[in-house]
Design brief:
Strand content: 5-15%
Strand order of the largest sheet: 1-2-4
Number of helices: 10
Structural class: mainly alpha
Shape: globular
Largest sheet: 3 strands, parallel
Order of helices and strands: EHEEHHHHEHEHHHH
Distance between the termini: 37 Å
Radius of gyration: 22 Å
Amino acid sequence: QHLNRPAAKMFEKEIVIDGSGHILGRLASTVAKELLAGQKVVVVRCEGIEMTGSMIRNKMKWARFMRLRHSTNPSKHGPFHYRSPARIFWRTVRGMIPHKSYRGKQAMARMQTFEGVPEPFDKKKRMVVPNALKVLHVKTYRKTTVLGEMASQSGWKHADLIKKLEAQRIAKSQEFYVEKKASVVKKAKAEAAAGCDKINSTLESFGYYVAPTEAGATAALKAEMGAISNIVEELKEEEE
């Protein structure tokens, strides 16, 4: 699913956005508007967010930012230079919100950012923001910088841990997908053998029946799951 809607269509209980493959500024501006409108937003996989420009260019910008400090007591008064991708994105959104006002503080309290996909968000539907996707707004020959890679070169020390946890999550989700697919096929065969069409139509008329997912409805995901399994195998080989 995607998040590209007018502000009138509020509210959902919580929106989980997969940050991987999004442009930093575009995603931050969209999230800031949602927060100020009262929406709760969770952004996962912040290490996959990208910035336009080459790595050297962005590291030079980061070096200039690192030189900013308080003249008398920088450890107490800041500015604080966060190294983790999740906090870098959090700080980017904060710069687009009047965070010192009461309204801005309440808006910032409605946002959560994470590297990877921790529980319970690994079991929730994740959305993308078409207005911020790199593949839709950046030409293929333009250079971009992955936020996680730049953070690793700037003092973030947990990139390998996040990579390992993500591999475990992907393997676990793949096992769940295979089991779910088998159970759907089994249920469809059982319903066909039992001849439940008449009962199901009656239940559906009363609003108590939800049509099961067809056995071939997720066939488009086979190629993606195969690619994921190859990545998991490569990571296991590297660990060994």
